[in-house]
Model the fold of this input.
Amino acid sequence: LRVGHPEVIYCEGKTVEQVKGIVEFMLTKEKNIIATRANKEMYRAVKSICEDANYNELGRIITIKKEKEKYTESYIAIVSAGTSDLPVVEEAYETARAMGNKVIKIVDVGVAGIHRLLAKLDLIRGAKVIIVVAGMEGALASVLGGLVDKPIIAVPTSVGYGANFGGLSSLLTMLNSCASGVSVVNIDNGFGAAYSASIINKL
Amino acid sequence: LRVGHPEVIYCEGKTVEQVKGIVEFMLTKEKNIIATRANKEMYRAVKSICEDANYNELGRIITIKKEKEKYTESYIAIVSAGTSDLPVVEEAYETARAMGNKVIKIVDVGVAGIHRLLAKLDLIRGAKVIIVVAGMEGALASVLGGLVDKPIIAVPTSVGYGANFGGLSSLLTMLNSCASGVSVVNIDNGFGAAYSASIINKL
Amino acid sequence: LRVGHPEVIYCEGKTVEQVKGIVEFMLTKEKNIIATRANKEMYRAVKSICEDANYNELGRIITIKKEKEKYTESYIAIVSAGTSDLPVVEEAYETARAMGNKVIKIVDVGVAGIHRLLAKLDLIRGAKVIIVVAGMEGALASVLGGLVDKPIIAVPTSVGYGANFGGLSSLLTMLNSCASGVSVVNIDNGFGAAYSASIINKL
Amino acid sequence: LRVGHPEVIYCEGKTVEQVKGIVEFMLTKEKNIIATRANKEMYRAVKSICEDANYNELGRIITIKKEKEKYTESYIAIVSAGTSDLPVVEEAYETARAMGNKVIKIVDVGVAGIHRLLAKLDLIRGAKVIIVVAGMEGALASVLGGLVDKPIIAVPTSVGYGANFGGLSSLLTMLNSCASGVSVVNIDNGFGAAYSASIINKL
Amino acid sequence: LRVGHPEVIYCEGKTVEQVKGIVEFMLTKEKNIIATRANKEMYRAVKSICEDANYNELGRIITIKKEKEKYTESYIAIVSAGTSDLPVVEEAYETARAMGNKVIKIVDVGVAGIHRLLAKLDLIRGAKVIIVVAGMEGALASVLGGLVDKPIIAVPTSVGYGANFGGLSSLLTMLNSCASGVSVVNIDNGFGAAYSASIINKL
Amino acid sequence: LRVGHPEVIYCEGKTVEQVKGIVEFMLTKEKNIIATRANKEMYRAVKSICEDANYNELGRIITIKKEKEKYTESYIAIVSAGTSDLPVVEEAYETARAMGNKVIKIVDVGVAGIHRLLAKLDLIRGAKVIIVVAGMEGALASVLGGLVDKPIIAVPTSVGYGANFGGLSSLLTMLNSCASGVSVVNIDNGFGAAYSASIINKL
Amino acid sequence: LRVGHPEVIYCEGKTVEQVKGIVEFMLTKEKNIIATRANKEMYRAVKSICEDANYNELGRIITIKKEKEKYTESYIAIVSAGTSDLPVVEEAYETARAMGNKVIKIVDVGVAGIHRLLAKLDLIRGAKVIIVVAGMEGALASVLGGLVDKPIIAVPTSVGYGANFGGLSSLLTMLNSCASGVSVVNIDNGFGAAYSASIINKL
Amino acid sequence: LRVGHPEVIYCEGKTVEQVKGIVEFMLTKEKNIIATRANKEMYRAVKSICEDANYNELGRIITIKKEKEKYTESYIAIVSAGTSDLPVVEEAYETARAMGNKVIKIVDVGVAGIHRLLAKLDLIRGAKVIIVVAGMEGALASVLGGLVDKPIIAVPTSVGYGANFGGLSSLLTMLNSCASGVSVVNIDNGFGAAYSASIINKL
Ligand SMILES: Nc1ncnc2c1ncn2[C@@H]1O[C@H](COP(=O)(O)O)[C@@H](O)[C@H]1O
Ligand SMILES: Nc1ncnc2c1ncn2[C@@H]1O[C@H](COP(=O)(O)O)[C@@H](O)[C@H]1O
Ligand SMILES: Nc1ncnc2c1ncn2[C@@H]1O[C@H](COP(=O)(O)O)[C@@H](O)[C@H]1O
Ligand SMILES: Nc1ncnc2c1ncn2[C@@H]1O[C@H](COP(=O)(O)O)[C@@H](O)[C@H]1O
Ligand SMILES: [Mg+2]
Ligand SMILES: [Mg+2]
Ligand SMILES: [Mg+2]
Ligand SMILES: [Mg+2]
Ligand SMILES: [Mg+2]
Ligand SMILES: [Mg+2]
Ligand SMILES: [Mg+2]
Ligand SMILES: [Mg+2]
Done:
């Protein structure tokens, strides 16, 4: 059905053998492959059958580039709050790249130091679509929503403790954003945010 | 800051006098005006100072058209599950219109009768961006996510009872969508969905 | 009290010795035996006292066939969404078999690719009772509920992350199904679903 | 698609006019009609266009009998805990009757007085399928599950207060039943329980 | 025990007669009196026995000034996000005043328009202690926390709908603030915030 | 303050050294000692300084008998549902014994097999106070509440999975008991139940 | 089955006619009658068929004294935190009286003014069993648990707002009491607390 | 922006290398450094580049003193309930010290033994600001709030089990405090409490 989209495996709860088997089958098609939530062992198994496999360890994601598709000219900006949010940033980044997008990362611009965010505003506003990644209280999405006029896909992360309840706090924050133009994906779902952003970036 | 976007009032928890006062002030600018969650009395008060005010009773939304902006050629599709979801559909519809979008409504195509949905697929696929409105279990977003390749903004509604917990059930369903390309706004937030969809439709 | 039903042990929170002891006692009766949530070590201990013990590793379930009961002619269809749901499918399958049912498995037909589901519809409709197993957003139960006219026992699984909250998301989805004819068992309770389905299949 | 099933309207959140309009359209088909969660005013409106309409005030349900279908010989037993659960019992009763089932009601047999339940056991065991309706702590489903060998559809009700949390307490009780053969529908969903029970009773 | 603090009544769940009676008794002491969550009828009853009673209708709070205490020179800043948060602002304001504090209100500076907030920063920084009042996603506390070096008492409000869950969203946001120096009181508890702020302001 | 009550340590979250140190200090008083939630290593450390220390491994509880107090003539009955509830039973048992009570255990009488419970009724009714221990859906407390006229202290256990939510299900069941005479302690709190029961048994 | 206990009706969700009918039937037995959660209209209906009926308006409870039973010599102490908790106090009081107990009320001794509580300690310690009624944060039960050596039945009330979540806050507080000897009943369940206390008081 | 405040790292979810790198960079500034939630390995890595680094193992916090700032004369009192709360006490203590405060610790004064608390009252009242640390039911904050007239920063801890839900119980208790003057930080957030207290202590 879909043209131009990669084949995707969600590795959580699968065995190394299962992941390897699925990739093997996918290699017969002429499409890019992404395997999210993959551990190192899975990567080694995939590498053994496909030299071109790459592994982003922080993002826990395997990518195999088969399509020669050119990258977009418009870009997706991935904006994140703290360094602990980087795994989600990387998952989003690799996904967006595997789908053929130009991507710019602007990290460590959480709202506790608003001036660092304001300093990057032109770069962010230049994007066609923006992914915001934030844990703890997740206020970055609201603040950015008030500053830019581009579609924002917000990803709450599970970074935090106590009354954060595994990301619930930032999820609720983002859903209740007082600024408009923000829509939300599941906690830690960097992949899903990039997928939505890619469809929008290619419109 | 923003050009081309309407002035917006959220009327819940405001008095009739407050709403009237805010509209009065907004009328001095050359922009469209939307007042969401407005009751009839608020409408009458607004009408008394502005002949052009319109009221969508089902959607509980007042709109005042000031801009002569042309409508977009690409369209937003608003797809909904049951008749009880119509108030949210109408809020989204009026918001999208006030922002200058061509909009098509496809209602009553819930997943309990999948063939009614499949029959409308071409019309839905023709849209540039899709708003999905569904309560109860909210499965419509996932199903549609698998069938189309356009960005989907999903709006869970509070329609239902018991273990629906005021829309929580459909909210979680949509956040956990097994199909990609779906991002989510707050429960019953037709306004927010239309706002995001409009930004995307105008890209 | 019950005739024709197997003896059942729930192994979670029991020691290997306790499981072995209970099985030893049960072997004195002429009934089939099921031990759910059993690990490999438990299986080895049981095997050491009963040659006929079988172990389904994915489903984590030990079965011992003692009754010569014939299988039913009507069948139970077990329909599941993704490969990560397979452990629950296998628990249901082994339980249904140990209770003397003909069973057909239709896996990997999640709603993100509705056409795969539609392709299997005749096989599913041929069943006397249907078990639906799905995690993430669990929409499969609603969709199938609208397509078939047989009793559906829905099993939400804990497959997913973030706002899935350990299966809560699919549990709520299934309880709020907009299609009728769907009743629900506990999260990951493949055993319970098969038990209910077996009683119905033998009516 | 469905043969032998009534047309159903869920009146909650619909206007009197909408309900009347939908019934008017349904009357053109030769099927029974059920309108659940209907208030008296809705009944009067329906009555004005259809002499045959009946209203069960406790169950808040309108039924219109058009089919001449004979009633089943096997029966559905509806077993309930307290008098406050009666509205749900009545919704289930009317639904099951409109679908052509013989139905027997056994009310006020909650577990606080287990002997009243035991006294009715033969009548309950004689049913082909059992609906259990209980609020507060909902223990009736587990107790009955251990006493009978028929499929049980359990309906938690919102009867109770405080830590009952609107029926959550009995819902969880029923989902965690230590007795097997119990599956569960939404809180207060007498309609859904009867629908499932009817499909099973006609197998 | 306490010197310099007013007598306080929490009127919710009390009858008009009870409130009047308690005030009557309190009037015998030489202290200021506050009655929070008071309706108009309660005010009239209090006014009938004490000419000096004042009523802030928006804040639903009655105050009676008996002490001749001078106001503090340092001030408390009450900063709020939207107009719907004003009732909580007023409850905090009246409480702080009744406790002898100089107070400055800075309203309608929510994070969706960050520049309005930045414009008021000097005034806010001049305070000895800051009360932040915000509903919806409550991000204002975090943003302000990063901009000022004064103790912040954050009050989440129940303003919002859907996934706001009656103020839970802003409560969690404020508890998880990524900026330091923020402590939190109960949802809508303007009184408690002012009480804490007053103790701090008088240190 | 208290006479006749043992010294009690809650070992969870303490180091072996801390537990040993506290016991050492307690040994200087002439009272019985209980250390709950103690692991084997803690027991060995305690044993090394006190020959008389005993360890109930299942109940994870260390007891040291110093008082020569005679046991009560009236007894506490501890009634439990399944074998997985035994750790809590043992914690309650050891606590009650260390407080000088005669105790009788009646285990494995869950409501799924009500006749086993009815068979033990005389023994249970003979107690002065009853502790009920049950996990999964916790219905045993309600059923017993209707059958006996003695005070019941109910202990929900965390036994179960999925919608059990770590014992929440049985906790809510017990709090909502439709039978009277039941009060409840924290999930898995065998110690607390025995403590309350002991005070009552000695009245 | 039970001797010496009153007949009890829970009026919530029953019609005036139903309540009257049940009382009429109960009057044929020689037992006291309690009707909890009764409104004034129900009282008038009951009064019309039974001159001896009494109504405690604050506690919303009807009592009819038929038994000539003498009151106990030992007493139950009902200790409460604030004036808003009085309805629950009254429900408990009337229930305990109707069951033949001597009862002493000690109200308005919440922990915010610990000295008022300490002043009443002898009176409280003189009781055979203690009922503690408290809303908001419910700390009174823990504090009292550390001061007395009698069984405590704690009743959380729904008094409070915001993060009180309808009594959840005090319920959890009481279940987690760091002092021993405290067991808990449902939120606002004055009746249940008195029932348990009465059984204990009569041991 | 901030003068006189330490540089702070939150180590959770960072690698040893990342922590070391950040500290290395921070050492170039003339400020104190705090690294919270740090494990031993992180400490060794930091020690290897900075001889002056200290590690509080219980509090899991690294501190590096660079500023010669004098300590305050007024003091912060840290009051805690049980020994299991000590890690949070230590995190708060080290943070307050690194920010230049005189600090006094009063531990093990939980409400189950109120007299131990009353014995320390003068010391506590002498503080300029008070941090209260308590788990389980967290009642200490309310009790102290009624006894002192200084600002209280309450820290709920995750100490407890079952219905404690990871600290939720004490969090809600503290937010609902019936005594005034109490504001709350996140569960286990000793750092945040000390930060707020330090700002107040230096006013
Ligand atoms: N129905 C709605 N749901 C969510 N946000 C809304 C809604 N209507 C308006 N808003 C937002 O609320 C803001 C106006 O709030 P206010 O100033 O309180 O009227 C607008 O700028 C919108 O971003
Ligand atoms: N996986 C399972 N989920 C729910 N209930 C189960 C499961 N396996 C066994 N049971 C039930 O647990 C009972 C056995 O429990 P036990 O006596 O503790 O081994 C059986 O009678 C079954 O009804
Ligand atoms: N009380 C009820 N609870 C749950 N579902 C219902 C109820 N009554 C009707 N329904 C379902 O709702 C559908 C009708 O919805 P609607 O078209 O909105 O009137 C029917 O086909 C039934 O499946
Ligand atoms: N709006 C409020 N929110 C929280 N606590 C309050 C509020 N108003 C008053 N209080 C507290 O409630 C106490 C009075 O309660 P009461 O004796 O029931 O009137 C006062 O001492 C205050 O501490
Ligand atoms: Mg924006
Ligand atoms: Mg799609
Ligand atoms: Mg169906
Ligand atoms: Mg059964
Ligand atoms: Mg700050
Ligand atoms: Mg009883
Ligand atoms: Mg005590
Ligand atoms: Mg105080």
User: Anything to note?
Assistant: The first strand of chain A starts at residue 7 and ends at 10.
